Amino acid sequence: MGKFGFVIHPFDTSDLARKFPLVDRMSSEWVESFMKHAPPISAQHMQNIDTGRASTEGWLVATTLTSRQLLDLPLPFVLRKIIAACKKAERQGAQIIGLGALTAVVGDAGISVARQLSIPVTTGNSYTVATAIQATCQAASLMGIDLGRANLCVVGATGSIGAVCARMMAASVGRLILSARDEEKLEDLAGYIFSESAVLADIQTDLREAVREADIILAVSSAAEELIHPEDLKPGAVVCDVARPRDVSRRVAVERDDVLVIEGGLVEVPGGWGGKPFSFGLPHGIVYACMAETMLLALENRFECFTLGRTIQIEQVREIDALARKHGFQLAAFRSFERLITPDDVLQIKRRAEQKVKKKILAP
């Protein structure tokens, strides 16, 4: 039976309070200063994961750095903290390590971490791409959006996940908008997409302008702050937010009941698992796709650096998706800001969007 480890981190100090309730009584600055030097924490032993074809078990290990610290602290220090968490999982029995959220982004996206370990590392980004595309297409269909005529904006397009998502969806949409901060990288990606699929993608460094033109938004940035705000979204827009931390402001949930925002990259593990419960803010049996990729490789006894670095091959995405189908992994029911989205919810969002558009057309 293959065994895996998976490295997680708190998005902010409020996440630490799930494990240590006393944190709520302390200032964020003090908590971050203290946890900066804390050792990695064993969060959960996930047992009895059995798909009917194979079984596995794994360990979640948390590095105590928050999202802001992972991006702002000196890279050598951050890498040492991530490597320490990986080695803790290895000592517990892991034969392959998955990097979660921003631990998969910092530096060279896992390459330097893998060089310091005796077991392989994966970022899980290949399966994240597969599930992000599936979720985006399903959500658009539910909202009655015709992909072939829709404007799709990829936020964070020059990142490893964004680039391959854009490449794989380019020929399926009416217009492709690539948005990121670096114009030169955007031009390079647009050129590559044209050479590959003859699609002329638009590039936009002004994120707000890019989002305002989009019917569908696939948000996959590695920013620590919220990027997409309620005033910038079209009525009836679909946003698949794959980024962790989120790209979409929580204000959208309060102020825009005419747009559909879903959390991308959520996967249902067949049969769930045993062991002491640990809260991701997700229901039991639901994990992020990056963790699911690590599980799948352990189930297959494929102890290799499957997804590493900033280049993801389309063949990798298709291969890991095929393994997921083999073992019965599938997209979880849609969720938005920790809340389940029902078919009736989608219908109501769609109706409100139609009413808003109608009022705008009839307005003098």
UniProtKB/TrEMBL annotation:
Protein known as: Shikimate dehydrogenase
All copies of domain Quinate/shikimate 5-dehydrogenase/glutamyl-tRNA reductase, residue ranges: 146-254
Pfam families on file: Shikimate_DH
